[in-house]
Amino acid sequence: MRNFQQWNPDLHFPFWLLMFQTNLSHLAVFAAIARHGSFQKAATETGISTSAASHAIRGLEERLGVSLFHRTTRSVALTEAGQRLLERLQPVLRDVTDALEEMNNFRSTPTGTLRINTSRAAASLLIAPLLYRFLATYPEIRLEITDEDGLIDVVAAGFDAGIRLEESVPEDMVGVRIGGPQRFVLIGAPDYLERHGVPQHPADLDRHNCIRFRFPSGRVYKWEFEQGDTRLEIDVKGQLTVGDQALAVRAALDGLGLAFTFESLVRAEIAQGRLVTVLDEWSPVFAGFMLYYPRQRQMAPALRAFIDMARSYLPG
């Protein structure tokens, strides 16, 4: 075996030889570990045991004669050689995946794994209503949903598509609108409004306990209002700041203060009288959510099936 320090990552690497000598699934395991920074998460994604993932990486390192990961009891990180291998390997794995997906076009029923990264609101409003119908219609598709409000590089993270509000879709992605416009509303419990009064203008929010929302990036959302040509952004104040819309709604239901959220998320509570909307004439309407995917890659049949169903069954 070569000494690990003798490998020069700048030399041209014979990937055809590596892939001939190595089980392709081991290379996929390597890429998954690099993506997650975890043997356990990579094993779950690839459908093998953690010990099998560890064995695959040991075999790959022995074949290459280099160390691919720095391992401690708490973390896993790529070595310089591992980083270079990942950079060279990702396009190859994408080509292989695309080739296999192209063969999927000849099947009468789409198959394979579809991985979607979505905001939590879109997961609740758009994906949840489709789950049973989609998976029942396409039993050979495995659907993996990751809901989080942070913005990520869906390609680097190994997702087939993302779903966000139109304003957050990266410019280099292909966007497909799913669902109709989304209205934001200011809500409060009847007892809170009885105790603290009903605001008549967004400026009155300075005298209210507002339930704020903080994005994963650390930025606190400034509440947006509009009436005609007038648009306002208000950095509201309040005792409670959350990172989840559902938690904000629960706090409003409990009478802790006013919350600002998607009308679709609280339609039932409003109809039941458990929440009341205020400043309706200032409530903004956003264009809605878009599903987006890489422009350079051929659309997988599973993704096409999901988009077609979403556009057919979600209200526009």
Give a written overview of the molecule:
This protein has helices spanning 15-21, 24-36, 39-46, 50-64, 80-104, 120-127, 131-137, 190-196, 245-253, 267-271, 301-313; strands at residues 69-71, 76-78, 112-118, 141-147, 161-165, 173-177, 182-188, 212-213, 223-227, 230-234, 241-242, 259-262, 276-278, 285-286, 289-294. By secondary structure, the protein is an alpha+beta fold. The chain folds into 3 domains: 4-99, Arc Repressor Mutant, subunit A, CATH 1.10.10.10; 112-181 and 288-313, 3-Layer(aba) Sandwich (D-Maltodextrin-Binding Protein, domain 2); 182-286, D-Maltodextrin-Binding Protein, domain 2, CATH 3.40.190.290. The N and C termini lie far apart (61 Å). Residues 1-13 have low confidence and may be disordered.
What labels would you give this structure?
316 residues; alpha+beta; Arc Repressor Mutant, subunit A; D-Maltodextrin-Binding Protein, domain 2; 3 domains; 37% helix; disordered N terminus
